[in-house]
Amino acid sequence: MTDRVVAIARMWIGTPYMHQASVQGVGADCLGLIRGIWRQLYGSEPETAPAYTADWGECSSQELLLQGACRNLVRCEPDCAFEPGDVLLFRMRPMAVAKHLGVLSEIGAARRFVHAYSGHGVVESPLSAPWQGRIAGRFRFP
How would you classify residue 41: left for phi > 0, otherwise alpha for psi between -120 and 50, otherwise beta? Predict the structure, then answer.
């Protein structure tokens, strides 16, 4: 399953960034990428994502993305080893709500992840120390 998740995520690389979108090759945001992977794995999505603004995480103290991940994905315990295909949930600032998602694509010394990033589209990036320090949770597709 992990190889399949990574392969699907990489098929989305090059998709332009588009807020609330989830169409491979057309547009996606970080949640849209995860939704698209889910559809390719299982068919229909487990729930409909509500409308959200680009700055929703700054306007609320509710952990909406974390709650959604807990409802639909399998949470990894902190001592669980990182595996390709893990869904990474990030806090972009300390003490802020978690509001960014990506898929771990490589482990080891050269950790990488696939994510949809504003201004860049869907890309594969190094999971550098600053990114690693922002991880708020890890999940796996069921």
Answer: alpha
